[in-house]
Specification:
2 helices, Ubiquitin Ligase Nedd4, Chain: W, homodimer, alpha+beta, Nucleoside Triphosphate Pyrophosphohydrolase
């Protein structure tokens, strides 16, 4: 950030009075520009003993497998983001189940949230951001071709909970590689 | 947003190619400026059968009671935000317990997250943003002087779960008043 988005003048990095942190502050209109982590929200869609993955058609991690997920938008709830991304990336209609994982990815300035979800039918279709959409049994998950560590972690939590027959919310922090 | 924070030129509201939504786009350097909801994270601190509330020394809702909470900062995990805000606003050191509530506040462009927490001692002290800090038994909660609906909702979830002897994550959407 170099310029004030409100008035177009230069910003400086300065700790405002009563604040603990340096912020971008406008030297002209004095607007303080706060920056905060963003939420990435998605689903872990299930059909019998299989889970749905999408192969990415975009960078980063082109060609790798992911759960359907994306940035939460203004005007949406976390559940609405999860449903929208699942429809956009996999063409999939799901019944949303409880929130299953919350993963802090501090170095990416993101929080990743995944809901468990039950596929309503198998009318799937790769969206613009997916090369293909496929269902995988646990033994056939392409573990070495998973796009993001939050996705791998969420899948591992899921298969461990399924083995126990008891699903709970999992929280974890993803450290820099 | 009127100006590009990268180059200082005017932005226009336009739907980028391949996007579904209008974004602020710079007419000069073509940067797309995404805007996303922010996370507000806090705790529900407990001491025996009492819960801790802070009376706000700042607007909005000056003089009303709240759980310690605040905006998640870059470089923090959700748990770190919860611990920092609890220390800043109530001087309280807590042992964090599982995430307890996730509340979407779409009209405020926020997601509120509260962890249950156990107070480590009673060495409390109102921070700069609090007029006072106090412990309340359920029967003495000032329900008509609670600052935010996400706080009231989280307290109601808590007392209901405590009665059942079983705490679970609660999710809810807070509609416009």
């Amino acid at each position: 950030m170099k310029f004030c988005s409100a008035c177009g003048h230069a910003v400086v990095l300065r700790t405002p009075r009563g604040d603990q942190r340096a912020r971008f502050v406008c030297t002209h209109c004095h607007t303080i520009h706060y920056q905060n982590p963003r939420n990435v929200v998605g689903t872990l869609p299930v059909w019998n003993d299989q889970v749905l993955l999408c192969r990415r058609a975009i960078e980063p991690r082109y060609g790798f497998w992911t759960l359907p997920a994306g940035f939460m938008e203004l005007g949406e709830t976390t559940a609405q983001t999860a449903l929208r991304e699942t429809l956009e990336e996999a063409g999939a209609r799901v019944a949303l189940q409880p929130l299953f994982s919350l993963l802090n990815v501090v170095h990416a300035q993101q929080v990743h949230l995944f809901y468990r979800a039950r596929l309503i039918d198998l009318d799937l279709r790769a969206g613009d951001e997916s090369l293909e959409v496929q269902l995988f049994e646990e033994a056939r998950i392409p573990w070495d071709q998973i796009a993001f560590r939050t996705v791998g972690q969420t899948l591992r939590f899921f298969f461990a909970d399924r083995l126990k027959g008891d699903f709970n919310l999992h929280t974890a922090d993803i450290e820099t590689e």
